[in-house]
Amino acid sequence: MTNKIIMGQFTETDSVLHRLDPRTKLLSLLVIMLSFLLLKSFASYLAATVLVGMLLRMSGIRLGWFARGLKPLLLVLIFTFLYHVLLTGDTVIWSWSFIKLTEEGLTKGTINVWRIILLVLIASVLTATTKPLVLAQGLEKLLKPLSRAGFPTETYSLMIGIAIRFIPTIIQEMDRIILAQQARGYDIRSIPGFKRVFAYIPILVPLFATTIQRAEQLSYAIDARAFGTGKGRTSYRQLEFKRSDLVAALFTVIFVLMMLLIRIYG
Amino acid sequence: MAYELKQVSVSLAGREVLRDISCTLQEGKWISIIGPTGAGKSTFAKVIKGLIPAYKGEYTLHRQPLPGDSKGRMKAVREIGYVFQYPEQQIFETTVYKELTFGPKMLGHSRGRIEEALEPVLRQVGLPAEILSASPLVLSGGQKRRVAIASVLITDPKLLILDEPTAGLDPLSRQALLQMLREWQQANHRTVLFISHQMEDVAEYSDEVMVFHEGQLLGHSDPGTLFMKNTEILRRAGLPLPEPVQLLRLVEELSGRTIEVDSCRERDIFDKVRLVWEARGLHHDE
Amino acid sequence: MLIFDQVHYYYRKGQPLLASVSFEIQEGEFVAIVGGNGSGKSTLARLMNGLLQPREGEVRLGHLSTRNTDDLIKIREQVGLVFQSPDDQFITTSVLDEVVFGLENLRVPREEMSVRVKQALRAVQMEDYAEAMPHKLSGGQKQRTAIASILAMRPRILVFDEATSMLDPQGRSQVLSVMHELHRQGMTIIHITHHMDEVLEAERVLLLNGGAIAFDGTPPELFRTGTLADHPLDQPFAVRLQHALGLNTGLKADWKEMIRTQWPTS
């Protein structure tokens, strides 16, 4: 379980992507994700796939690691696929009683699944190459203009940082509860299919209870170290744009232009 | 009737955490498991309990080989109770009653049998009957721990695994808990596997002691042999002697003679040391 | 220096957690605070640096009062708190960020931060782990990081709230040796514990029972007077040994030393 969820997990390798400024990564990711809305023709999908493939390579992380991260999404992917395949389109290729398989459905299903995979992969590239706290710091800096309008950016970025920091801890906790139930003869993993989704609900109850206790402890720890004086904070890790950030930004712009052109002329 | 492992090895995430373990756990014994953090103590306990799906080697339960598949392992799961570290963190039901009855229900005990078992088990762990309707969330830390232990005892396990059950408790609660578990074990002729870092508790309560180090079983003997005769094993595992035994060694050094004691319990050693001390003192007076 | 003046505390009226607690702790003292589970020890710790406010009475540090919001930030800078659970006080995602967190809140300039971080990590022997992530550390290492993160804030008093109770013997002795080394260098230490052998090493001990101070004196006095008999606390090994041998004086934390010096010679 613990190893399966990779969203939000940082990996300790070093690569060009690891060294980029978090602001560059956040903005580029946002722009690229938006450009995926333009995906339509085969050429555009090819371009997007090549881009994601390149980013995966550049991250210096094994492809298998990303593949493992897709596994928990399998159910969603299958559902999306079946939804399109069975319920859309007119050109029937194969049918059995009320089940009809259509050509349009097949293409649409494949394309939509592919789009989700691309989006998830590109998001995990960001979290895998950026330390949560650095990510939060980048976000804080990006949102800085808002703080003049009275928006508590420091608190929000700390919140995001903590959320990411606690993902592994909460997963460990969940594993412990599952084990405790298993030890008393109840094996959640032996429950088939959709029923298992509901079987997770009783686990969430104690999980919330311990998480609330944790949160209380943590709030003391944060207060005890003089957070939230209202006078602002200094920051140890300095963010600075380097040449590589410029290159990445240019690259993003070019990619988005390319997507636009493909959309218009393709 | 016993639990037997033959050349069992376990690898987790590509690392061998247990190597070539062979042992027999006799029924009716308090068996302590000691070793530094990361020595494989909890993994060993999980193999015995049947919680680890893949291992090499053989596991025989009461002379019958236990198949490694999940169905086979459930057999071990059913007759073995497991109290995890900080058990109070694993309470998952909304009332004490539901928490206590969860295990027996899963084992298919009849409603009547479960209801009958409730009162004695509460008495055993020293909780009032009114607590049954309470939500675990409102209980104190000590009460939660007793509820968690009761929820395992109520399944009437033949073998009870205790993974550092006293961690974080104040000294008297710790003594009371161990005393209670020892009484339960002896009165019902049950087997206990007791994982502990506290050498003094191990010396006080055990019939047998198993020493783990880097995934290997370095030794398995009675506490007297381990702590007083064959102390080389303890040294290799990097574990300290219990304080009473350290005292005995010091007194032997000071008096320049060996002292024969057949128990490593604190009271027995104190008695012996007092005799030596008083003999010295008398001699001095003359 | 740290003064509790007639402090009362309760969550719900009629169920006092602390009642009329008064004491003063001097600069450079090593004070152990003991009591059974639920005797009010943790509440006491949280009152010490203003995480909780007394319902009645006052907690003062020199001329500063935790009641005064303007003083609070200074008090939190000067009274550092190490909590019980190694997991629930780790706010950030690396050892370095953890140590820096408090400094950023105190608006320490960047150059000074790196000096303080180095010193603090050296003091707890964690300088090789600056970039390590919390879930990869042992309990003892986590607690030492927590100590470093507070040391960096240059406190005058360190309060350990059962900081050794969830550690294995190895982690416990690491934390204890850091504690004693800091005391040798002049730090005021308040150590809340229920390990009675740790109490013998303190200069002064406060016994808490049902929310009131039941004893305030030196450890040998505590064990000699038999005050402990009414509390869920046992005697340390050295004291049990002393009783068994019928010795009346010369109680020492190091019982081997005690036996050696009092061994009857002929």
TrEMBL record, chain A:
<feature type="transmembrane region" description="Helical">
    <location>
        <begin position="116"/>
        <end position="136"/>
    </location>
</feature>
<feature type="transmembrane region" description="Helical">
    <location>
        <begin position="246"/>
        <end position="265"/>
    </location>
</feature>
<keyword id="KW-0472">Membrane</keyword>
<dbReference type="Pfam" id="PF02361">
    <property type="entry name" value="CbiQ"/>
</dbReference>
<keyword id="KW-1133">Transmembrane helix</keyword>
<feature type="transmembrane region" description="Helical">
    <location>
        <begin position="73"/>
        <end position="96"/>
    </location>
</feature>
<protein>
    <submittedName>
        <fullName>Cobalt transporter CbiQ</fullName>
    </submittedName>
</protein>
<keyword id="KW-0812">Transmembrane</keyword>
<dbReference type="InterPro" id="IPR003339">
    <property type="entry name" value="ABC/ECF_trnsptr_transmembrane"/>
</dbReference>
<feature type="transmembrane region" description="Helical">
    <location>
        <begin position="26"/>
        <end position="52"/>
    </location>
</feature>
TrEMBL record, chain B:
<dbReference type="InterPro" id="IPR017871">
    <property type="entry name" value="ABC_transporter-like_CS"/>
</dbReference>
<feature type="domain" description="ABC transporter">
    <location>
        <begin position="3"/>
        <end position="239"/>
    </location>
</feature>
<keyword id="KW-0547">Nucleotide-binding</keyword>
<keyword id="KW-1003">Cell membrane</keyword>
<dbReference type="InterPro" id="IPR015856">
    <property type="entry name" value="ABC_transpr_CbiO/EcfA_su"/>
</dbReference>
<keyword id="KW-0813">Transport</keyword>
<dbReference type="GO" id="GO:0005524">
    <property type="term" value="F:ATP binding"/>
</dbReference>
<keyword id="KW-0067">ATP-binding</keyword>
<comment type="similarity">
    <text>Belongs to the ABC transporter superfamily.</text>
</comment>
<dbReference type="InterPro" id="IPR027417">
    <property type="entry name" value="P-loop_NTPase"/>
</dbReference>
<dbReference type="InterPro" id="IPR050095">
    <property type="entry name" value="ECF_ABC_transporter_ATP-bd"/>
</dbReference>
<keyword id="KW-0472">Membrane</keyword>
<keyword id="KW-1278">Translocase</keyword>
<protein>
    <submittedName>
        <fullName>Energy-coupling factor transporter ATP-binding protein EcfA2</fullName>
    </submittedName>
</protein>
<dbReference type="Pfam" id="PF00005">
    <property type="entry name" value="ABC_tran"/>
</dbReference>
From TrEMBL, chain C:
<feature type="domain" description="ABC transporter">
    <location>
        <begin position="2"/>
        <end position="235"/>
    </location>
</feature>
<keyword id="KW-1003">Cell membrane</keyword>
<dbReference type="InterPro" id="IPR003439">
    <property type="entry name" value="ABC_transporter-like_ATP-bd"/>
</dbReference>
<keyword id="KW-0067">ATP-binding</keyword>
<keyword id="KW-0547">Nucleotide-binding</keyword>
<keyword id="KW-0472">Membrane</keyword>
<dbReference type="GO" id="GO:0005524">
    <property type="term" value="F:ATP binding"/>
</dbReference>
<dbReference type="InterPro" id="IPR050095">
    <property type="entry name" value="ECF_ABC_transporter_ATP-bd"/>
</dbReference>
<dbReference type="InterPro" id="IPR027417">
    <property type="entry name" value="P-loop_NTPase"/>
</dbReference>
<comment type="similarity">
    <text>Belongs to the ABC transporter superfamily.</text>
</comment>
<dbReference type="InterPro" id="IPR015856">
    <property type="entry name" value="ABC_transpr_CbiO/EcfA_su"/>
</dbReference>
<protein>
    <submittedName>
        <fullName>Energy-coupling factor transporter ATP-binding protein EcfA1</fullName>
    </submittedName>
</protein>
<keyword id="KW-0813">Transport</keyword>
<dbReference type="Pfam" id="PF00005">
    <property type="entry name" value="ABC_tran"/>
</dbReference>
<dbReference type="InterPro" id="IPR030947">
    <property type="entry name" value="EcfA_1"/>
</dbReference>
